[in-house]
Amino acid sequence: MSIIKSLEIKITNIIKSAGYDVETVKLCNSSRPEFGEYQINEAMAIGKKIGKNPREVATDIVNNLNLDNSFTNINIAGPGFINITLSDSFLLEELNKILNNVELNIDKQDKKKIILDYGGANVAKALHVGHLRSANIGEALKRLARLLGQEVLGDAHLGDYGRPLGLVILEIKKMYPDLPYFDPNYCGDYSEIKLPITNEDLEKIYPLASTKSKEDEQYLEEAREITVKLQNHERGYYDLWEKVVSISKEEIKQVYERLNVYFDLWKGESDAANYFDELKDIFEKENVLEESNNALIIDVKKEEDNSPMPPLLFIKSNGSISYETTDLATILERKKLFSPDEIWYCVDGRQELHFEQVFRAARKANLIDNNVKLTFIGFGTMNGQDGKPFKTRDGGVMTLKSLIDLVKEETLKRINPETVKEEEKEEVATTVAIAALKYADFLPFRAKDYIFDVSKFADLEGKTGPYLLYSTIRMKSLLQKVTDKNITFLEIDKNTRDVIKNILNLSNVLTSAYQDKSLNDIAEYLYKLTSSYNKFYAENRVLTEENPAKRISWIALTSIVYDINTLLLETLAIEIPNKM
Ligand code: ARG
After folding, report:
1. Nearest-CA residue for atom 6 of ligand 1
2. In which order are the strands placed within the sheet that holds 290-292?
3. Which of 88, 393, 415, 437 could form a disulfide with 492 if both were Cys (CB 3.0 to 4.6 A apart)?
């Protein structure tokens, strides 16, 4: 249990022993630090409830708090705020407990099984900036949930089905009509065919085919037919589809790995499609499908809606299944394969309506137990200086790779040539660039848009990834130079109170990040903890301090801050280079 939580329980019991009934109290950071580090606000509520002067209530509580040597400087302010400061002896004992195992200072959540749908890359299309956000936030949420004791399965949920793939296959057919995949008389083994197409080609083919389909009705019709063939697993077309998926998946995996993003499941929309027949049975039995203009729809409106809620398109008039239906089939698949307690979707905020329709339809047809939580975790867009989704200079879609390169140009300039060897510079600059991008992406509340600003993101000062990396590397190098044995806290000195207060706050930050499903609190906390430590570091010479009790305590402090930083950077999936 975290230090703060155990204090809250202790204080609750103290208030009870003073004769007052109270729920578990919250220890708040003091709004007037000159009176104490923390404050307890319960006296007012208790006084009001039982009709007693809150200051008298506070006095009773304080008399009991005084009996406990965890607190000092206990005083009452205003109508009955109780200010307290933690005693040195209490801090020494608690800090020594978490030294070498900072996880002891983290409160866990009730254990649940969660499927986290994130990444969402589309096969045969280059990953773009939007996919960065999903991968980045999703991976960190997965790690955060695990840190807090949850069982999480991360699923890449690839977009590998539907019209875009039909278009790609059609364009390949136009380019290479003689490939055996298109020869109905071919009876050989498709796996022996060498496809003259690389992933780079695929990334060009889709935009080309997509443009053609918008200009040419006949072309679009052909793509539709091919899409149906794929969905019916028609020999040849289906085999080519499998090949395209596998080429693209290799590349997607590499990009994700470079971002430190790893999935437990590599399922895609095409896997869910296998559950479609069963899904349809369920929806028919539950009587929720309606016919409308040759399509099947589900009414998902609710009386309390005050904005339009269009019906969910279950089967389109041309017989194909929609993106919504694919997501319903995915819910069925996940329920059958994994029986999760919760499913989280880390997806662009602009898809909120889609998920609202899907969740409502799932509830309406009792597709999944009512206790299973379906949670949409929408994120905003990364915009350019013009406030519009970030594009390349010539207005094209910014791929993830070129985005990383753009930041790398900037971080490369800041690599210290005295510490990093020439041949390692590129690699280190890339690691720092990814950290810069990731951290900047976590900093605003996830649902907010933010503006891409390379020189700000890559700065070595301020709230940036490079600042955190640089500071953490410096702590590590300090710790490597330590020659003292038996590092423990021997004394608490005034200089370190701020840092200690931040250390104590760790668990609250993680809990609130978990509740909000946003990493901004952790990003802010990392900065706060690190800068408070750096301030202390600038004012004191840790390794050469002559008073051994001070020196050893300062080293212990450095060690805890270093451990928290590495733990949190690891949770955010930000890699720390050895040098920079
Ligand atoms: N592939 C989709 C896209 O690029 C994202 C998938 C999100 N997940 C889901 N279950 N629909 O927009």
Report:
1. 120
2. 290-292, 295-298, 312-315
3. 88
Q: Establish whether residue 345 lines the binding site of ligand 1, counting it when its CB lies within 6 angstroms of any ligand atom.
A: yes
Q: What's the rounded Cα separation, in Å, for the pair 526 and 578?
A: 19
Residues 171, 545: Cα–Cα separation, whole Å: 71
Residue bearing the CA closest to ligand 1, atom 12: 120
Between CA 317 and CA 294 the distance in angstroms is 5
Measured from the CB, is residue 119 less than 6 Å from ligand 1?
no
Q: Which of 344, 347, 357 to mutate to test the pocket of ligand 1 (most atoms within 8 A of CB)?
A: 347
* Bridge partners, 38 (sequence order): 29, 84
Ligand 1 site, residue 164, Cβ cutoff 6 A = no
- Structural domains present in the chain: 3-86 (3.30.1360.70), 123-158+263-383 (3.40.50.620), 163-255 (no CATH), 400-571 (1.10.730.10)
Which of 133, 157, 245 gets mutated to test ligand 1 (max ligand atoms within 8 A of its CB)? 157
Q: CA-CA distance, 502 to 150, in Å (whole number)?
A: 25
Instruction: Indicate the top mutation candidate among 115, 122, 267 to test ligand 1's pocket, ranked by most ligand atoms within 8 A of CB.
Output: 122
* Element housing 477 (H / E): helix 465-480
